[in-house]
């Protein structure tokens, strides 16, 4: 029995990695007025952030349909009668993407038993890590039940924070009120966000200035993991690297770092957090062979 991994575009797994590990990706959509793009297919991060900064109106996003998932599942399962699918998706608290995948599986009759859908309760490379790890575990021969347990264990041991550069996009997306956004911007407030066990965005702190925000993130990660354990770090960036490079220096100064890698926050997640955001994803080094 072989296990194939499916995900959606909000995992922000780079195309090269998806191709190397045979990960199938179903894209969400981004809508700029009358123009519709497939996330990470017909629009990439660089072009998206240029359009976002210039746009008079915030773009909207939409989930894949169950048919989109059905087509992907059928094509994979047609490869072999032994093939199983583990499909890992954006938190159901953020989007109907997970539900679309569940509906697709339920419409596939006798093939449904060969498909398992996982709600990552996360976003961006916060679950992209899990997708990559699952694909590498499958490549090493891990069977489906063990692989599902492995993904959940890793999710419990992965820590994530988002440092948001501007409050404007959270306000436009309805996450905070306009008065709070204006006041926060005047005071140079940098929100630090995370995602709770229910898969909901939560504010863990609000700090004045980038330097203090980075310092606070280092403090929280020490609380999460201690400073003695060797860690793997992934930094997800939007349209510029300055904030991420400052964060990398602090990791190197404060922790035993096995490796630091970069990826991009894609168009769908970028719509809601805006330019200048950095996603920080940390896992213990014992998972390094799967990353």
Automatic annotation (TrEMBL):
Keyword Zinc set for record: no
Record bears the keyword Membrane: no
Domain of life of the native organism: Bacteria
Family matches, as InterPro entries: DegV (IPR003797), DegV_C (IPR043168), DegV_domain_contain (IPR050270)
Protein keywords: Lipid-binding
PANTHER family xref list: DEGV DOMAIN-CONTAINING PROTEIN DR_1986-RELATED, FATTY ACID-BINDING PROTEIN TM_1468
Protein name: DegV family protein
UniProt organism field: Marinicrinis sediminis
């Amino acid at each position: 029995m072989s296990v194939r991994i499916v995900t959606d575009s909000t995992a922000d797994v780079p195309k090269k990695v998806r191709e190397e590990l045979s990960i199938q990706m179903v894209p969400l959509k981004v809508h700029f007025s009358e123009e519709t793009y497939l996330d990470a297919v017909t629009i990439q991060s660089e072009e998206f952030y240029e359009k976002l900064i210039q746009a008079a109106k915030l773009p909207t996003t939409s989930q894949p349909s169950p048919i989109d998932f059905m087509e992907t599942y059928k094509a994979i399962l047609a490869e072999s009668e032994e093939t199983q699918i583990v499909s890992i998706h954006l938190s159901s608290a953020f989007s109907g993407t997970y539900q679309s995948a569940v509906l697709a599986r339920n419409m596939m009759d006798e093939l449904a038993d060969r498909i398992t859908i996982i709600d990552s309760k996360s976003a961006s490379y916060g679950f992209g890590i899990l997708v990559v790890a699952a694909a590498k575990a499958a490549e090493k021969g891990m069977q489906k039940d063990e692989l599902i347990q492995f993904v959940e264990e890793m999710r419990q041991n992965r820590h994530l924070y988002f440092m948001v550069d501007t409050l404007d996009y959270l306000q436009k997306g309805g996450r905070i009120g306009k008065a709070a956004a204006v006041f926060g911007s005047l005071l140079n407030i940098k929100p630090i966000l995370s995602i709770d066990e229910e898969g909901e965005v939560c504010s863990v702190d609000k700090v004045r200035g980038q330097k203090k925000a980075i310092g606070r993130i280092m403090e929280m990660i020490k609380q999460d993991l201690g400073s003695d354990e060797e860690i793997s770090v992934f930094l997800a960036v939007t349209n510029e690297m300055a904030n991420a490079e400052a964060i990398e220096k602090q990791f190197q100064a404060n922790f035993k770092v096995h490796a630091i890698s970069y990826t991009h926050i894609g168009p769908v997640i970028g719509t809601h957090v805006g330019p200048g955001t950095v996603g920080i994803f940390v896992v213990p080094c014992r998972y390094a062979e799967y990353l």
